[in-house]
Design goal:
Order of helices and strands: HHHHHHHHHH
Number of domains: 1
Low-confidence stretches: none
Helix content: 55-70%
Mean pLDDT: 92
Radius of gyration: 16 Å
Oligomer: single chain
Shape: globular
Largest sheet: none
Length: 205
């Protein structure tokens, strides 16, 4: 039981290290005071430009990988690396979405979720990356690509990990959480009010 608690707590605390917030603070600003108010990579790029986003990507990807690796190590002799990695991955996304140290105002978890998938099951990582890329480059809606990727995340784990209930549950939960975090975007997409975004340049003022 202790290893479960450690994997979840460590993962959640690592999730509180939000790249967009940390980097914008270093710039003397707060990304949550701009655009959509979201503490995520898309809003960061819209506000500051893609050239400043590398550290955000490194932080959000790095914390996801670290949470999974630590969780996996805790489970090496008790059910396997993948079980612990899935637990740590689910926890880091929960911490990213609802960070206690940031008054529960976090990001939506797509970038971090991709790297959770890279560690837990690279096949699912490739699949969600492909789904996101296809949807985004056809429509230029980041949110649509993200929602479809999150749904694919859940489906991928539900289909490919029926032999490990912990991994299946963590994978489905992570994808559903990321989908839930996009609920307002989904409403705007349905109403035709969602913004298109060029991830390679800053929004014009």
């Amino acid at each position: 039981m202790l290893r479960y608690i450690l994997a979840l707590v460590i993962g959640y605390l690592l999730g509180n290290l939000n790249g967009a917030v940390c980097v914008s603070k270093l710039m003397g600003d707060d990304v949550r005071s701009h655009g959509s108010g979201n503490a995520g990579l898309t809003n960061f790029i819209r506000s500051y430009g893609a050239a400043h986003s590398a550290m955000v990507i490194v932080m959000d990807a790095g914390k996801a990988v670290l949470a999974c690796v630590i969780g996996g190590i805790l489970f090496l002799e008790h059910g396997g690396f993948r079980t612990g990695a899935a637990l740590g991955g689910a926890a880091v996304i929960l911490g990213h979405a609802f960070p206690v140290f940031l008054k529960f105002r976090g990001g939506k978890g797509i970038l971090s979720g991709l790297f959770v998938a890279v560690v837990v099951d690279w096949r699912i990582a490739l699949l969600i990356l492909a789904v996101f890329a296809i949807a985004y480059f056809i429509t230029w809606y980041v949110s649509l690509g993200s929602v479809l990727a999150a749904i694919t995340f859940s489906i991928g784990f539900a289909v490919l990990h029926t032999d490990n209930l912990t991994v299946l549950i963590c994978g489905v939960f992570t994808g559903l959480l990321a989908t839930f975090m996009h609920r307002q975007n989904i409403v705007r997409l349905i109403k035709g009010q969602e913004r298109k975004t060029n991830l390679f340049k800053k929004d014009k003022e």
